[in-house]
From TrEMBL:
GO terms for molecular function: ribonuclease P activity; ribonuclease P RNA binding. Pfam families: Ribosomal_L7Ae. One of its GO terms (biological process) is tRNA 5'-leader removal. Residues 53-135 form the Ribosomal protein eL8/eL30/eS12/Gadd45 domain. GO terms for cellular component: fibrillar center; nucleolar ribonuclease P complex; ribonuclease MRP complex. The lineage of its organism: Eukaryota, Sar, Stramenopiles, Oomycota, Saprolegniomycetes. This is Ribosomal protein eL8/eL30/eS12/Gadd45 domain-containing protein. It comes from Aphanomyces astaci.
Length: 153
């Protein structure tokens, strides 16, 4: 049985050998999110996800970067993937789109650069971001427990 990476490489080789190989980039299997919708997604990441990153870091529910997102997809833990797509990123991120469609994981492909997605995440650059679901029995103490002031007697 072939691994997921091996299957993605086979798909890439099949495309290279096809008659349509004269084109530099393959057509995307997903439509790009552009203009206003792209800004809405980036703003929601900036204002809703980025403030939670330090609190959920011990739970490892956010994967940032192509390799980390690939690992999360391989483990069947990803619940949604956000991908910054421009021509320089497409060859390196093609397997993420293949795996997301294979495992029926929702994917949001933004027509933006990795620098813009990185800015929304509070980093220099991020080509891909994946979110995993938090199990019901997991308690995030940083998120759910309010701060208790000391009692002076």
């Amino acid at each position: 049985m072939a691994t997921l990476r091996h299957r993605a490489l086979q798909e890439k080789d099949r495309w290279k050998e096809s008659s349509d190989a004269s084109r530099r980039l393959r057509p995307l299997p997903f439509s790009l999110v552009e203009n206003e919708d792209k800004q809405i997604v980036l703003d929601r990441i900036l204002h809703e996800l980025t403030p939670l990153l330090p609190a959920v870091a011990p739970l490892k529910v956010v994967a940032i970067g192509v390799n980390a997102v690939t690992r999360l997809l391989e483990r069947h833990q990803a619940s949604v993937v956000v991908l910054a797509m421009n021509p320089s990123v497409q060859p390196a991120a093609w397997h993420i789109m293949s795996m997301a469609s294979m495992f029926a994981v929702p994917i949001c492909v933004l027509a933006t650069t990795s620098q813009e997605l990185g800015d929304a995440m509070g980093l220099k650059a991020a080509s891909a971001v994946a979110l995993a679901s938090i199990p019901d029995n997991t308690v995030c103490f940083h998120c759910s427990v309010p701060r208790v002031e000391a009692i002076n007697r």
